[in-house]
Design goal:
Structural class: mainly alpha
Radius of gyration: 19 Å
Largest sheet: none
Number of strands: 0
Distance between the termini: 20 Å
């Protein structure tokens, strides 16, 4: 169930995020500050949320005393709304990347930049930028599976239903 958690943590670490953002914030960058904001939107805020949520989930899943997860989703679901800002902005970010090849200078610099990022064992920028868009739908799928496989008499059954409604409202 939690197989993608370590991968997710490795994807959204300060080092990884800075691996993309820091080079773009340099004065000689091929993107200006506005373009960098369009590309990354509120990803650094999402990073902070993900770190806290993952830490709490790991504590809970490693605990033998508590087999309930819904309360964590109920606690964090209101904050998942910050993904909406990112998702709404994502189309503009992809548009910016699609327009990039129109300028040879930018295209060459971008390819050079992306090659440097790939050498650091990061995903491509496009695949990196889509990850936050996919996160809440994955939470919804996880909650649906948890709900489906949780016995009706389990204390987490009703809270899972509530958490599923809250997360579904974000998706």
């Amino acid at each position: 169930m939690w197989d993608d958690a370590p991968t997710h943590r490795e994807t959204y670490t300060p080092t990884n995020t800075q691996g993309y953002i820091s080079p773009l914030q340099k004065p000689d960058s091929f993107f200006d500050a506005k373009d960098t904001r369009v590309l990354f939107s509120n990803i650094e805020t999402i990073l902070l949320l993900n770190e806290k949520f993952l830490i709490d989930l790991e504590k809970r899943t490693n605990s033998e005393e508590n087999d309930q997860l819904a309360d964590l989703f109920l606690e964090f679901a209101p904050f998942f709304k910050m993904y909406t800002t990112y998702v709404v902005n994502h189309e503009a970010a992809i548009g910016l990347l699609k327009d990039l090849p129109l300028s040879k200078r930018k295209s060459y610099e971008f390819e050079k930049f992306e090659q440097q990022v790939l050498q650091q064992k990061y995903d491509s920028l496009n695949s990196y930028l889509i990850l936050p868009v996919q996160r809440c739908p994955r939470y919804k799928l996880l909650l649906e599976e948890l709900y489906k496989h949780t016995p009706a008499t389990h204390a987490d059954k009703e809270p899972l239903s509530k958490a599923l409604v809250l997360v579904s409202n974000v998706v």
